[in-house]
Each structure stands twice: as C-alpha cells, then as structure tokens.
Amino acid sequence: MSPMTTQAWRHNLLLAHSAAARLYKQEYQGQQKGLIGIALWFKWYEPIDSTSISHVAAAQRAQDFYFGWFMDPLSFGDYPESMKTLVGPRLPSFTSTQAAELRSSWDFVGLNAVSAMYAEDTSSVYQDTELGYFQDVRANVTDYDLDGVAIGEGITEFSVPWCIMRIVAYMRERYSNPPMYLTQTGWGIPLAPDMGENLNDTARVQYFHSYYATLSEAIRDGGDVRGIFAWSLIDGFELFQGLGNHIQTFSLWMLHNFVLHNVYNVFLAG
Fold this sequence. Notes:
4-stranded parallel β-sheet, alpha/beta, 19% strand, globular
C-alpha cells in the first residue's frame, strides 16, 4: 500500500464516520435517544529512555501517528502537528465544515487498551526523500528495553497494567476527559497442549486483577471511564492465530477426542 493510499483511506474513514453520525443525529437520535461512539485501538508508547529528549519526542510521535491520527480530528478537527510537519502535502486536509462535523460526530470514545510498547527515535535513519508510514513517524516500537528486558509478562503479548493509568491520564489531559469505555482489555496467551493447564488460568486472573486495580486508580484520579469489556468472554477467532491464541474467559470450543465440550476457565470462579 502506497503512503498516499494509507493517508487517503484513513481520511475517508473519518469522513464516513462523520457522515453516518450526522445522518443518525438528523433522522433518528431525537426519537431513539441513542449515543454515538467510535472504538479506537490505543496502545501506549513509552520512551525507551525517558531521559532522552529524542526518545521522548519519538514516543509522542508514535501516539500521534497510531492514535492521534483518528482522535485529534475527532477532537480538534485537524491532524496532529507532528503529522502535518512530517507527512506534509501527502496528508489530506479537512474543510472547516468537515472539521466542525467531525468534532460533533461522537458522544463517547471506545478504547481498545491492551498493552504498551517502547518507542525509540529513528530520525537519523531515514532521509526526507523516503516515503512511508514508518519513515514518516521516525520511531521504532519494540516490546523490549535497551537491556533486552520485556516491557511486561508474556510471550507474544505482554501484560502491562500501568499502561491503563497512562492511557486514561492522556485522554483526560489531551482530550479534555471525554466519556470513555474500554471496549477491549485482555491478554492473548498461546494455548498449552494440556487442557487442564489452559483452564487453570491463573495468569489471566492476575492480569484482570492488576488491570482493573489500576483502572480504579485512574478513575479516582478523575478519568471519566464509564464501562469496560473483557477480551474475550468467549472464543475469539483471531486474524493470524485463528483459535490458537487463548484469550477467552469462558471457552465453548475445547476439543477433546474430536468432541466439542463446554468448559469453564478458572477465571470465572472469582
């Protein structure tokens, strides 16, 4: 996919959301009293070296390019300044009417907040003539710090409870604390060969306990979080892992001797 195509489809996605919201508000909201939201993926990016100005700036660029690409137009009617500077004329623009409609196109935001990664500056790697998403953001994201230590517990996905505190605080400070729902929080773990090991799911018990404890603290600090959805109550068929990534708190599909069984995970025992 070319850089121009990437900018265009995201731009059109925002305009499509705005058009659908406008139609609902004009034709249905008065009678139905419904609310309009949008769910966005929000992975927190922590500077790989918090004492380095360049890495701190890279982490902010990562937030801008991964999350702010959508949230800034919805909140402010325009793309983040870092994107406008680095992408330049390849980045589409909004008319004043489109900007106003985007700002009024939602009543709450859903956040798929699962984990965090480190971000490091790569400004010296790319030339200004190189075009592409990773060239534009000038930041590399990684699960490991400069000493090779993982950002949290896990294998392919990492448990990072403190990321919830960072995410809610960021929403409160940058976007004026809008009504928020955590529409996805969970931990994908590769399935073990033994069914009993999968059902004795103490790691996920600890994951949710630590994440919800951190979320409670973020709410006490003033974050307007109104609900949370676990990922996932039942089996999830993932794009790349299929059913091989263990994410559910209640399993419907465990296969034993080619017979499907309904089985509970220990998570539901409380």
